[in-house]
Each structure stands twice: as C-alpha cells, then as structure tokens.
Amino acid sequence: xxxPPGGPPGPADVRAWVASLSSEEFAALVxxxxxxxxxxxxxxxxxxSEFDRRNREIxxxxxxxxxxxxxxxxELRGSKPRIWRRLSLPxxxxxxxxxxxxxxAMGWTDSHLHRFQxxxxxxxxxxxxxxxxxxxxxxxGTGEDGVRLDQVLRLPxxxxxxxxxxxxxxxxxxxxxxxxxxxxxxxxxxxxxxARACPPxxxxxxxxxxxxxxxxxxxxxxxxxxxxxEDAEHAHxxxxxxxxxxxxxxDEATVAMRLWARGEHLxxxxxxxxxxxLVQSLHGxxxxxxxxxxxxxxxxxxxxLDDHDVRRAAGPWLAVLDAVGTxxxxxxxxxxxxxxxxxxxxxxxxxxxxxxxxxxxDLTWPVADLRANAQQVGLLRxxxxxxxxxxxxxxxxxxxxxxxxxxxxRLPLGKGFEAEAGxxxxxxxxxxxxxxALDAGIAQILTDRGWRTRNGSGLxxxxxxxxxxxxxxxxxSMAGGRExxxxxxxxxxxxxxxxxxxxTA
Length: 505
Hints:
There is one protein chain. This protein is an alpha+beta fold. It has helices at 11-19, 23-35, 95-106, 132-136, 149-152, 205-217, 232-238, 250-261, 273-280, 284-295, 307-324, 338-347, 365-376, 391-396, 400-408, 417-430, 435-448, 461-478, 487-499; strands spanning 68-76, 84-90, 114-118, 159-164, 170-181, 190-195, 328-329, 380-383, 386-389. Among the domains are: 11-51, no CATH class; 68-195, Structural Genomics Hypothetical 15.5 Kd Protein In mrcA-pckA Intergenic Region, Chain A, CATH 3.10.290.30; 307-408, Orthogonal Bundle (Arc Repressor Mutant, subunit A). The strands form two sheets. Strands 3-4-5-1-2-6 form a six-stranded antiparallel beta sheet. It has a three-stranded antiparallel beta sheet with strand order 7-9-8. Helix 11 (307-324) packs antiparallel against helix 12 (338-347), helix 11 crosses helix 15 (400-408) and helix 17 (435-448) packs across helix 18 (461-478). It is elongated and about 85 Å long. Residues 1-8 and 34-50 have low confidence and may be disordered.
C-alpha cells in the first residue's frame, strides 16, 4: 500500500492520499482499521464513508441549445497568498479539454493524474467524472470526455472541484462568474487575470510549497534549506529556472492555453499519427533518445523542395518506370531482363561506380533494391511473371513533383520491425542524425519498444540499420544514390515524409 504524502498531513493531504488508493488498497485499509476496534468497526464507523471507492453516474442537465461564453476563476485551495486565474472559455468544451486548458493556465505540466468533481470544498464523497485512465482501470461512472463545461457550470456561483496529482493533492476550486453570448471572435480561450506563479511539480503539496516559498523569500539561505532537499544546490536544481513565486503574466498564460489547445505543447505534435503512437509508448533511455530528436526537429511545417530537388528525387523512380514501360515479362528466375537492368543502372548512375556489366538484377543489388522499393511504394506490381506500373504510377508519371509526393507518402517501407525502424529513421534523419549515431539511437529505441534478438538481448546498431534499410535505401536513391548521396537532401526528404511537401506558387 502506498504511503501518505510527506510532511505533517492535513485534512486535504489525507483525503488526497485515500482518494489515490486502489479499491484493493482501500479495502485493506478498512480491514486494518476495523481490526483495531473491539466493536468491529466499518469504514463509516471510522468516518471514512466519504471515501467509498464505488463511484456513481452523475445526473446532468442536457447542454444548452446555444453555447455561451463562460467567465470563471480557478483558485488553488490553501494557497496564501492566493494563486488564481480568471479565464474566458466557451461553454461547449468537454472536461477533458478543460483539463488541458487548466494545466496551461495554472502552469502545471500534466505529469500526473487529475479528476473533476461537481461542487466545491463540500464535494468530498460525491461522485466524480472518470478520466480515460480511470476507465482503463475499470472505474465506473460518467466520463469527463462526454460532459460539457456548461453542463456543470450553469449559473453564476456554481462550483467545480479540480484535483491534480493525487500525491501532492493540489485541489482547485472553479467558480463560474458570468455567462455571456459566445461569438466567433470570443471562442479562443483567454486568461483575463490572475496572480502568482504555479507551485513547482512534486514539491510536496501546499505544506512543501509553503516551505519552499518561505525559503526563497528569505534569500534562499544555504544553511536552512526546505525539508526534503539535501542542500541549496539540490533545491535550486529541483525548481524551474529563475522561479519567482510572485510572477504571473495573463498574456503569457493565454498564449500557453492556445498552444496547448492546439496540442503544440506535446513533444510529438505535428508528426504522423503512427509515429506519435510509437513515441508515446516509450520510456527510459528510448524516450530520452526520442526526446532529443523531437527537440531537434525545428519548425514542423511542409518542406519546400525546389525543381532541382524534385528532379533528382524523381529520377530513380522514372528510370524504373521508363524501363518497365507498359509492362515487361520477368525472366524464369523472376528478375528483370538484362537490357532493362542495364538501362536502369545507366539512368541512375550505377554504372559509373559498379564493377561489372550491371546487366543482371541478381548480381546488381542497387537495381534489385530499387525495383523492390518501387513495388513497396506502390509504383509497380508483380502479377505472375509480369511486372507493370500501377494506376498510381500512371497517374503521376508525367509530373515529377507528384511522383515524389506519392513516394514520400508511402514511407516508411516494410511492416512490423521494418516499419518501426523506418519511422524512427525518418525522425532521426529529420532531426539531423545520420550514420552510426542514427543506427545506435534506433537500436536503443527499438529495444525499449520490446524488440529483442533471438537470445533475448537488446538490439545492436547493425540490426537497427538492417530494419530501417528499405526506408533508408529509398531516401538515398532519391538523394543521388549511395555513391553520390546528398546528405542535406536526405534530411529534406525525411522531413517531407513527416510533414509534407509545400505547394508551389
């Protein structure tokens, strides 16, 4: 069973601790308390009935026919002097979206669980709205993602409790101040006013926060650090950079709220959904590596490819399509006929560095890989003994830019292990990584994803490179070929695969 928060526990600390217990932990607590009583106590006998873990559905009025603009305050309970914000929000936001805006406005980092409960400080023991996490844990009740703000705050004076971080137990009282007409110009969230900075995360609740603030206001003496810190250096390292408990700027809070509303505060914002899901599954060293790459991405916008870039990137695919024509029969071994292999090798520059005639596909791996990649990106299809262009290829063959876009939208190549390795290769390349550092990073990430060698050990760089090879080969062929590759173009193409190609004027 978990322990209650550190420091002298107050009522709010005890409530937050009990609220954080699982059903099994709560039952064990009641049993232990009951064993102390000769009369056979129950939860209610010990004054714990308000912590009954059984949650109930919440009866709500239907949402208004027309959403309104709500002006409300959110205040951190127990903060002296008050830490509060006045916000302007559209009433048709669901509570999960409101949670995101509260985090941004207050200055939290969304690193812990949260909960909404109708009513103010007298709401203990009342049913609460369940989060997605609660639902995944088997909790029953009314889901916050299906409840609008204007269903719980309807008239001025209505209140809502917002709990964040069940360990530190940060409790907020949300009070509706006014209801006004909502217009297109007032839909964006806004912070109107407020005071004082948000407490640092994981500082030990209001008790720990009060100690930290008193220490800072006393000049942060090195010989009298707050409880829980080894020394002044430890305390300063724990606090946000240049933390000032008395600083607050409503305009900065508004910017943060709008950025969070668009999801731009998330490290993986703007990347394709499959990659975002992979990123969110990571922990430990793999997450540290990915975080570095995400931080190095820069602007997550469509990429400008000039005509030179486009011609070079389209070249290898056009060489294959020109050689195949409307269709060609493969040899008995399933290879391209030698004249076509030589034609592709000459058009792509392979013959300038390849040793030999470069006229047999099984002996000329650059051509074989290019043909295989052309099939994987959907430009060629093999039916029995015939290789022919697809309808997708025929639609874009006359427009190099559309051809390049058609290929990039199919990256990464492969399935399973190869697809995951390809996604992380695109991310690392887009962040400027390459070579051994890229391969080592992908190996670490895939190991954290659970991929292992046959003997159960983590992956090495060579194995990661092999997994990402189809995607890497496609990019390198578009950037001049292995012996004449343009590293800067590889980066631009990797970014274009993630963020798209900008339209031409």
